[in-house]
Design brief:
alpha/beta, Spore Coat Polysaccharide Biosynthesis Protein SpsA, Chain A, 9-stranded mixed β-sheet, 9 strands, globular
Length: 248
């Protein structure tokens, strides 16, 4: 049951039963992967169990630029592996998107920080939205999962710019867990190759007039080494948001 918010942003109260409309659609899970051998197997196991237990029809796409055993682990699970040598968060998604055949797309980082048992909540919320953003700031955040500089400085600043430059009234600026209808994704012109892809995704959704909802998600300590670089990636987000607004 949706509760209307401002600027087409909707806060979702989740039900426990998926609509027949969503259950009859094909789901494409797209996972950007670079050296995630510590967590990838557990993530894939959870996703496959959720799909199987709920009789959901879907595919799992691992977009991989790893130098570790991640692609081998993905192949052992029988999922689609898109192997490329392009470094960058945006590049991983842009390459993975090329293989989508589903009606609904769920994007998630396979580093152990997100609980893929929450997939059903995203599907439920998609019944009345084009895009569903998983908000770490509305859910439970495990101690140490997010550096204080990201939580109290970087994220609030990015949210401030999104709200004042683009009218995006969100609680989450750069989540790694999102769902979108494929026909809505096709309307978006996504080009950013790095971490700023997360900002571009939200700005494009707003620009294209897509109905955006938010749900609370839990956020855990990741497994393995983080690829984030606080100042470099933070600057890329800010640079994109300001330059894109000036360019418009």
């Amino acid at each position: 049951m949706p509760v209307a918010g401002n600027n087409s942003i909707t806060i979702i109260i989740l039900s426990t039963v998926l609509s027949s409309n969503i259950k009859n659609q094909k789901i494409s899970m797209v996972l950007p992967c670079r050296d995630e051998e510590d967590a990838l197997g557990a993530c894939l196991s959870t996703i496959k169990k959720v799909l199987s237990d709920n009789s959901l029809w879907g595919e799992i796409i691992v977009s991989d630029s790893s130098s570790d055993r991640s692609p081998e682990i993905a192949k052992d699970f029988g999922v689609i592996v898109v192997k490329h040598n392009k470094i960058g968060y945006g590049n991983a998604y842009l390459e993975g998107f090329k293989k989508i055949t589903g009606d609904v797309v769920i994007m998630g980082d396979p580093d152990g920080s997100y609980d893929f048992n929450e997939i059903l909540n995203f599907l439920d919320a998609l019944d009345c939205n084009d895009v569903v953003v998983g908000s770490r700031f509305k859910g439970k955040m495990e101690r140490g999962a997010m550096p204080w500089s990201h939580r109290y400085l970087g994220s609030p600043l990015i949210l401030f710019l999104m709200r004042n430059l683009y009218g995006l009234n969100l609680t989450e600026p750069s989540t790694g867990f999102v769902a979108i209808r494929k026909d809505a994704l096709d309307k978006m012109k996504l080009r950013q190759t790095g971490m700023e892809f997360a900002s571009e995704f939200l700005v494009e959704a707003k620009k294209r007039g897509l109905k955006i909802g938010e749900i609370a998600i839990d956020y855990h300590l990741r497994r393995g080494e983080s690829k984030l670089r606080t100042f470099r990636d933070g600057f890329r987000h800010l640079n994109f948001l300001i330059k894109r607004r000036i360019g418009n």
